[in-house]
Amino acid sequence: MPADNLGMNAKPFRxxxxxxxxxxSTEQLGGDQARSAAAFVRVALExxxxxALDVVPSSRETxxxxxQRKEHAIAMLFAKLTVSDARILHRRLTIPSDGDAIASRxxxxxxxxxxxxxxxxxxxxxxxxxxMARSH
Length: 136
Hints:
Layout: H1 21-25, H2 31-37, H3 46-54, H4 63-80, H5 83-94, H6 101-106, H7 111-122, H8 124-135
Helix pairs in contact: 3-4, 4-7
């Protein structure tokens, strides 16, 4: 339909990817309020992932071992996510938003560790297909 046929009362609209309906409706608030409210969608295991990212090394282990343990714990939580949640979290971690607890803590990991965990999230669909094939 040509733009001329929209009429004078046509209002522009926005499509929100990976936001909840309630967050998308906050665009009516305008400005910074809308941007902070429509930042991201929560995923399953959100609190457990934040806890795993917040774990501090014990005094009995080296920093290297502590961060390997942390990476393994986070990967195990990522493995439990549905493909949909893995995709949402992958987007949140690669395009972080202000106020996202997971993204802000994740950014504190070294680049190699972040890259491995993001690649693991991106591989969720393949892991699901392999698991389904093995179950038959």
